[in-house]
Design a protein that fits this description.
heterodimer, A: about 280 residues, mainly alpha, about 75% helix, B: about 350 residues
Chain lengths: ~280, ~350
């Protein structure tokens, strides 16, 4: 029996897709119209030629990368330890990791300012380095729900208890086990978490604005108020960037160890053989 | 002095005592199996030897050294797990080399040892493969090579064959035994499969409820089970109610008088006791030495190829036995009367 073409589902999908495709196309079209009477990438060139754009995006990139590093170093051993030693506490830790989704960033940052303000016992906000540190730590907190979830899911698919015991029976210390067995096996998960963290903290506004740091988020907002065509160009670029991150996440998440980036040209004997 | 000794080991989880005073002495190069149903504590004892569990009380020594409180990574044990537990991020050679790198071996030495181990398990051609590219049997052989590579003092096998299919299970267990003999490594093997334990062990420890019910060679365990549990768990067994007719060893079983080989030890005040009889000790054909005859009704006949299993009701007692099939053999019909012959010396009293 020949299947008839699924008319209704396809129409529904197209209709739903149009809700985000049409504005996207419109924005893209608008971003090309900076020079009167012709279509071109003038708005994009204007963005890239702006010194402020380059400094803010560099600043935010560095802050995000540091946040990813700190997040991974804190979260991987924690998630591993909880799964291995105190699995009953996992729901509690999971709940804590979700708090940043419940508590708005503005509350977090006001808390920081009060706690580490000029008349506190640790006046971090009085120095640039201290404020940078607060911003990075804030990013670590904001990305915790995503990082923890990604890493925890990564740990769920490997049998960490048995792998740990196997490593120990071969003489490995706990630290060595984490470094040579656990970390490499959740690397894909860490990278997924890292891309999520990156895409969140790169354009983050509230923390950066209230801590008064020269980050990308506040620049975006400022640009939106001052200019017409450049924000559209930036929106398209950040959209492309986010999609790029998602593609990379997929690539890292599905790549198996020892797998080549591209298939071999010469054929190889069947992968699976029986004993 | 035995090589591996466990003295009065007890392990309690919360209020649940899983191992209750376990004693065992294993000689160097010996292959000992822990056999028992799930929950009998066999894996817990193995994990105590490995150091993954610390005994609540008791002592474990390896080669004269007290290891009771020693961390697992300091014990020089090799362990093979049911779930293979190969490191997914490393290929076969990397997995085998793992323990050698930790032991601080040089590059050339490590390489040579990896090749030697690959040769031992016959997988030299798969050194570059990753675990996910191999079958279960191959993975488990790699796990064995990985455990053996750093030359451990004791090899521990935790149900290594349970996840494999029947054919590979048999061939791999023979391979494990062969490698163990060649290397002369002291080995403890945990299994719930009595056939597996029988076929590869020097000695078997039958465990029940956290204790060792019986420790002995496979033939001792099978032919002279010391407890009712061992008798029932290892092989199939006919348990018959008997009554002491005359001291010291004349009993009545299903209306037939039987002269036992040993004096009766466990008859209660009314003279009741339990006798056990292996199915292979019974036959429909009378022969010399089979001095006891049970007349009864055939309840079922199961044709299983080379063997025919017959169940009979003899004076209210159910007995079952196997006969070898032969082309000229006509099995008895269900419902017919038949006579099963047994030797009184094959009947033994179930004591504990």
């Amino acid at each position: 029996m020949k299947k008839s073409f699924p008319v209704v589902p396809v129409l529904t999908a197209l209709f739903a897709a149009s809700f985000f495709v049409v504005p996207l196309i419109a924005t893209f079209y608008f971003s090309l119209k900076m020079t009167r009477g012709e279509l071109g990438f003038a708005a994009y060139a204007s963005v890239f030629n702006s010194a402020e754009f380059l400094t803010t995006i560099t600043y935010s990139t560095i802050a995000s990368l540091v946040a990813i590093l700190i997040g991974a170093v804190i979260i991987v051993p924690t998630a591993y330890w909880v799964r291995l030693k105190v699995p009953r506490l996992r729901p509690v830790v999971e709940f804590i990791s979700l708090l940043p989704l419940v508590v708005p960033p503005v509350v977090l940052v006001f808390g920081y300012i009060r706690l580490f303000g000029s008349n506190s016992w640790l006046p971090l906000t009085t120095t640039t380095a201290g404020t940078d540190m607060l911003l990075v730590l804030g990013y670590v907190v904001l990305s915790m729900p995503y990082m923890f979830r990604a890493v925890d899911n990564g740990l769920a698919v490997i049998d960490i208890a048995t792998l740990t015991e196997a490593a120990e029976s071969l003489g490995a210390s706990r630290l060595r086990t984490i470094a040579t067995v656990i970390f490499p096996n959740v690397r894909a998960a860490i990278i997924s978490g890292a891309f999520l963290t990156f895409s969140i903290s790169l354009g983050e506004f509230v923390l950066a604005s209230l801590l008064n740091r020269p980050a990308f988020g506040p620049y975006l907002v400022q640009l939106g108020q001052d200019r017409a065509y450049e924000p559209a160009a930036l929106a398209i670029m950040s959209f492309g960037f986010t999609w790029g991150c998602m593609v990379l996440m997929q690539v890292f998440a599905t790549r198996k160890p020892g797998q080549r980036w591209f298939p071999r040209l010469t054929s190889r004997p069947a992968q699976r053989t029986t004993a | 002095m035995s090589f591996l000794s466990i003295t009065n080991a007890v392990k309690t989880f919360g209020t649940n005592t899983v191992v209750k005073g376990f004693d065992l002495a294993v000689e160097k190069g010996e292959f000992v199996s822990f056999l028992g149903p799930s929950g009998c504590g066999k894996t817990t004892v193995l994990r105590m030897i490995a150091g993954f569990e610390r005994p609540t009380s008791g002592k474990i020594t390896i080669d004269g050294r007290d290891v009771t409180d020693l961390a697992p990574n300091k014990r020089r044990i090799g362990m093979v797990f049911q779930a293979y537990a190969l490191f997914p991020n490393m290929n076969v050679a990397g997995n085998i080399a793992f323990g050698l790198k930790i032991a601080g071996l040089g590059k050339a030495e490590t390489e040579a040892r990896v090749q030697e181990m690959l040769g031992l398990i016959g997988l030299s051609h798969l050194a570059e493969r990753y675990p996910y590219e191999m079958s279960g049997g191959q993975q488990q052989r790699v796990a064995l090579a990985r455990a053996l590579a750093p030359k451990p003092q004791v090899l521990l096998l935790d149900e290594p064959l349970s996840a494999l299919d029947a054919k590979i299970r048999v061939s791999l267990r023979e391979e494990i035994r062969d490698i163990q003999r060649r290397l002369g490594i002291t080995t403890v093997f945990v299994t719930h499969d009595q056939e597996e334990a029988m076929s590869i062990s020097d000695r078997i420890v039958v465990m029940n409820g956290g204790r060792a019910d019986q420790i002995g060679t496979p033939s001792e365990i099978y032919n002279r089970p010391s407890t009712r549990f061992v008798a029932g768990f290892v092989g199939t067994l006919n348990v018959l109610r008997a009554r002491l007719e005359r001291q010291p060893q004349t009993v009545t079983v299903a209306g037939t008088s039987v002269q036992l080989a040993q004096p009766v030890r466990t008859a209660d005040a009314d003279g009741n006791l339990s006798l056990a009889l292996r199915p292979e000790a019974l036959s429909l054909r009378p022969s010399e030495g089979r001095d006891v005859a049970f007349d009864g009704l055939v309840k079922s006949v199961n044709f299983m190829g080379s063997v025919i299993r017959i169940r009979m009701d003899v004076g209210g007692e159910a007995i079952s036995f196997d006969m070898f099939n032969s082309p000229d053999l006509v099995p008895p019909a269900v419902g017919a009367r038949a006579t099963a012959h047994a030797a009184s010396r094959d009947m033994f009293e179930l004591t504990a």
